[in-house]
UniProtKB/TrEMBL annotation:
It comes from Candidatus Uhrbacteria bacterium RIFOXYB2_FULL_57_15. This is Glutamate dehydrogenase. It holds the Pfam family ELFV_dehydrog_N. Substrate binds at residues 67, 91, 345. GO terms for biological process: L-glutamate catabolic process. SMART domains: ELFV_dehydrog. One of its GO terms (molecular function) is glutamate dehydrogenase (NAD+) activity. Residues 180-409 form the Glutamate/phenylalanine/leucine/valine/L-tryptophan dehydrogenase C-terminal domain.
Length: 410
C-alpha cells in the first residue's frame, strides 16, 4: 500500500508547481512541528497489563491551535497520522478557520476491547499527552472508531489533571458535555453544501445516482442526506462487503439492518458485491467515505463515476488523480469536501470558550456559508490555473498559510 505521508508530500509538491510559492514555505510544511509517540499501559479486565502505542502529530500551528481527530485502528501508524495531520493543516486553511493541523491515534482494534478497557485506554492517551493538549495549544476531536462518549472521557480526564473544565480542549463531545448541535452530521452536511455549490458546474444531473463506499459515521449520514434530497443511493459498503439496488436503497432499512447485524451485507432485496465491483459501478457520483488509498493506479481504470467527492481522508492516490483528470472525471478533494467536520468542531471550541450554545440552525447556517464560499473559490481557482480541484484547494490553502507565516515573522 502506498505510504499516506508520501502521498500527502507529493500532493504538496504538485500544488507548488501549479502556482509559485516560497520554497521555504513548502520545505517548512514537509516537516511536522512535532511528532509524539507514547506508551499507554492499560490493566485489562482479566488483570493482565497491555501496553498500547499512541500518537500525536502536531503539523502546523501557523494559523491557530493544532486541531485534528484521534483514530483508533489496528493499522494506524505514525506515517498515517503524519499524513492526516498535514491534510488537517490544509483543510483548516481551505475552510479559513483559525486552526492549525494535528492528528492523533492509537494502534488498536477497539472492537476487541470491553467498554471499561476502552475508557481506561482513552483516559490513558490523555494522561500521556496532557502537557501538550489544551484549548489554546492542541484541540483533538473524533475520527475513525472514536465517539462522543470517548471525547467526554478525555475531556473529563483532562479536567482532572489540569483543572480546566471549559471542555474546549476537545470537540465532538455529547451535547450534555458541551458538544455542538449538528456535530454528528457535520462532515456529511458540509459535503452536501459543497455538492450543492458545485453540482451544475461539474455537469451532474439534478437527480444523481450515488454510490457511497463506507457506512460509518460520515458515510451513513451522507447516504441519508442525498436520499432525503431525492437522489438515488444505489450502493453502499462496509468492511464486510457491499450491497447494491438498481432502484435505489432504502437507507433507513440499511441503517436498521447494520445496527441489528453489524453489517450492511445481507439486507433483503439487495445483491452483494465486492469492494472492487463497487468501484466499477456506473453512477453519477462516487463518495469514498472509508479509509485511505482506495482509488489507486492499479484500479483507477475501472472507475465509471462522472464525479468523485471525497468524504474520507486520502482515498485517492496522486497517480489515480492524474488518470482521473485525464479522463475528465472531477475529484472534489477531501480537504474541501469533508471540512464540515473540523469547521463545526471549531464552532464547538468557540462556544465552549465563550460559554455559549448555538442552535442547529445557527451552526448549519454558518457552515453552509463557509462551505459554499470555499467550494466556489476553489472551483474558480482550478479554472483559472487550468488544473484539478485538489491542486486548486492546496493552492488556496498554501496562500493562506504563507500569509499567516509572513505575519508571524513581521
Amino acid at each position: 500500500m502506498p505510504n499516506p505521508f508520501d502521498n500527502a508530500l507529493l500532493q504538496l509538491n504538485r500544488a507548488s508547481l501549479a502556482k509559485s510559492f516560497s520554497p521555504e514555505l513548502i520545505e517548512r510544511l514537509r516537516h511536522p512541528n512535532r511528532e509524539i509517540r507514547v506508551s499507554i499501559p492499560i490493566r485489562m479486565d482479566d488483570g493482565t497489563l497491555r501496553v498500547f502505542e499512541g500518537y500525536r502529530v502536531e503539523h502546523s500551528n501557523a494559523r491557530g491551535p493544532y486541531k485534528g481527530g484521534i483514530r483508533y485502528h489496528q493499522d494506524t501508524d505514525i506515517n498515517e497520522v503524519k499524513a492526516l495531520a498535514l491534510w488537517m493543516t490544509m483543510k483548516c486553511a481551505v475552510a479559513n478557520i483559525p486552526m492549525g493541523g494535528g492528528k492523533g491515534g492509537i494502534t488498536v482494534n477497539p472492537k476487541e476491547l470491553s467498554k471499561g478497557e476502552l475508557e481506561r485506554l482513552s483516559r490513558g492517551w490523555v494522561h500521556a499527552l496532557s502537557d501538550v493538549l489544551g484549548p489554546k495549544k492542541d484541540v483533538p476531536a473524533p475520527d475513525v472508531n472514536t465517539t462522543p462518549e470517548i471525547m467526554a472521557w478525555m475531556a473529563d480526564e483532562f479536567g482532572k489533571i489540569t483543572g480546566d473544565t471549559s471542555g474546549a480542549m476537545i470537540t465532538g463531545k455529547p451535547l450534555v458535555n458541551g458538544g455542538s448541535e449538528g456535530r454528528g452530521t457535520a462532515t456529511a452536511q458540509g459535503g452536501f453544501y459543497v455538492f450543492g455549490a458545485l453540482r451544475e458546474k461539474l455537469g451532474l444531473p439534478q437527480m444523481c445516482r450515488v454510490v457511497v463506499q463506507g457506512f460509518g459515521n460520515a458515510g451513513d449520514h451522507a447516504a441519508e442526506l442525498w436520499t432525503q434530497a431525492g437522489h438515488a443511493v444505489i450502493a453502499v459498503s462496509d468492511s464486510k462487503g457491499a450491497i447494491v439496488s438498481d432502484a435505489g436503497l432504502d437507507i433507513a432499512a440499511v441503517t436498521a439492518h447494520k445496527k441489528a447485524t453489524g453489517s450492511v451485507v445481507g439486507l433483503a432485496g439487495t445483491r452483494m458485491i465486492s469492494n472492487e465491483e463497487l468501484l466499477a459501478l456506473d453512477c453519477d457520483l462516487f463518495i469514498p467515505a472509508a479509509l485511505e488509498n482506495q482509488i489507486r493506479a492499479d484500479n483507477v481504470a475501472v472507475i465509471r463515476a462522472k464525479v468523485i467527492m471525497e468524504l474520507a481522508n486520502g482515498p485517492t492516490t496522486p497517480e489515480a488523480d492524474d488518470a482521473l483528470f485525464a479522463r475528465g472525471i472531477a475529484v472534489v478533494p477531501d480537504i474541501l469536501f469533508n471540512a464540515g467536520g473540523v469547521t463545526v468542531s471549531t464552532f464547538e471550541w468557540e462556544q465552549n470558550l465563550n460559554g455559549q450554545h448555538w442552535t442547529e440552525a445557527e451552526v448549519f447556517g454558518k457552515l453552509r456559508t463557509i462551505m459554499e464560499r470555499e467550494a466556489t473559490n476553489i472551483f474558480d481557482t482550478a479554472q483559472s490555473l487550468r488544473t484539478d480541484l485538489r491542486r486548486a484547494a492546496f493552492v488556496v490553502a498554501l496562500g493562506r498559510l504563507e500569509e499567516a507565516m509572513r505575519e508571524s515573522h513581521d
